[in-house]
Amino acid sequence: MRMSKRLQVLLNEEEFDEIRAFARQQRMTVAEWVRQSLREARRQQPRERAERKLAVLEEAMTYSFPTADIDEMLSEIAQGYEID
Fold first, then answer.
1. d(CA 28, CA 37)
2. Where does residue 22 rank: exposed (0-12), middle (13-18), buried (19+ CB within 10 A)?
3. Measured between alpha carbons, how far is 38 from 45 in angstroms, rounded to an integer?
4. CA 39, 40, 46 angle in degrees (round to 5)?
5. Is residue 19 classed exposed, middle or buried when 0-12, 13-18 and 19+ CB atoms within 10 A define those classes?
6. pLDDT digit of tens for each residue in the chain (84 aa)?
7. In the chain, what are the domain boundaries?
8. Which residues are CB-contacts of 22 (< 8 A; sequence separation ≥ 6)?
9. How far apart are CA 69 and CA 75, in angstroms?
C-alpha cells in the first residue's frame, strides 16, 4: 500500500480563486484539480535526458580505445610543450 504525502502550497487570493473556478468548471475539488494538473505537468517533462545519457554511455562502452598510465600520459603531454 502506498502512503500519501501532504503538499502545502501558498497562493495569493487571485490565483486560488482562478484555480477554484477551473476546478468548478470540471466539477472537481480544488485538490483533485491540482493533483491532475501536477500529473499532467510531470507527463510533459522531458525524460529523454537521463535515458539519452545512458544510451550514449552504453554505446561508448562498446568501443575499445587505447589507454595508458596517467603519469605516462601527463609526461608525454608535458614533453610536447617543451621548447627545443
1. 12
2. middle
3. 11
4. 100
5. middle
6. 788 899 999 999 999 999 999 999 999 999 999 999 999 999 888 777 788 888 888 998 898 877 788 999 899 889 988 876
7. 13-81
8. 33
9. 10
